[in-house]
Amino acid sequence: MRVLGIEGTAWAASAALYDDAEDTVFIESDPYQPDSGGIHPREAAEHMGEAIPQVIQRVLNHAAETADGEGRAVDAAPNEYGIDAVAFSRGPGLGPCLRTVGTAARAAAQSLGVPLVGVNHMVAHLEIGRHQSGFDSPVCLNASGANAHLLGFHNGRYRVLGETMDTGVGNALDKFTRHIGWSHPGGPKVEEAADDGEFIDLPYVVKGMDFSFSGIMSAAKQAADDGEAIEDICFSLQEHVFGMLTEVAERALSLTATDELVLGGGVGQNERLQEMLRTMCAERGADFHVPEPRFLRDNAGMIAVLGAKQFAVGDTLAIEASTVDPNFRPDQVPVTWRVDEQS
Ligand code: ATP
Questions:
Q1: Which residue's C-alpha comes closest to atom 5 of ligand 1?
Q2: ipTM > 0.90, yes or no
Q3: Ligand 1 pocket, 116 CB below 6 A?
Q4: CB neighbours of 236 closer than 8 A, spacing ≥ 6?
Q5: Which single residue of 91, 140, 246, 291 has CA 20 to 30 Å from 277?
């Protein structure tokens, strides 16, 4: 089976081809880079409008070149690309981007003559980690730009075990770097500057299974305005913010009696966050998996892989029912591809 995946929830205009016979994922992406400030939804949607047709075309070219692959006869496929379904991100994300990309996905499915599959972007972050690790039923820490939460499977759904009470973790870092005049995205720049920093006290807010970043971001901005060394603020931001995420991830493992953790989302590329989680897992005897970087940041590969699982169990969408949802929560998704598992 081959699935064309399409992703465009915020900044990454991305298309991918997943081939389940060979378990290969081919990804083509074109990132939106704001001239100044953070992501402007209208500009990002304009970027999607220009870039999505191009990345889809590049993936289709690759699909045509490889259509007659192992165990597959192209004349038996619905189209010359050997593509059986089109999967796209229905949300969560920026409304203008989602609508643009949803239109492209519907058009692609119709012109290829194949079913459409609607994928939840945050569940895809989890599932690519489960797919790559071979873990059975892991807890997932999704640490991305607009989100930060822990997910665990229970009674046919991915339940939100804990989450940010305000901003996403990457957005929080990006707001701080914007304040001090650094260009978007700020997360990688915080990681680099943290190498030369020393610890200073900042607010640390965990309430049960939830956490908050707004207080620490205000304090970090204030510290910068007061002349504190930027390297020290960056180092301390990482220690506090990633400490919060690691504490709640450990509690999620403990409360669900799970010994598998996967990481998802663009902030998951941060080596200090990975190190904290790896140490925590090692200390409690849990297995830890970090997907390849190309699957951590927003990408259509994870959409194609989850789309294939959904397609395999007939979880497809009628075109007229394929509206997008900027607030699509992971626990709204019936996990059809794990039907045999009740908990
Ligand atoms: P979502 O999955 O919530 O839609 P998103 O669209 O913002 O997220 P992602 O690619 O998951 O996209 O994450 C982007 C975020 O990751 C940005 O906020 C960026 O600053 C942050 N980021 C990228 N690399 C690093 C890093 N090395 N350290 C910390 N943060 C990072």
A1: 145
A2: yes
A3: no
A4: 197, 199, 200, 201, 202, 220
A5: 91
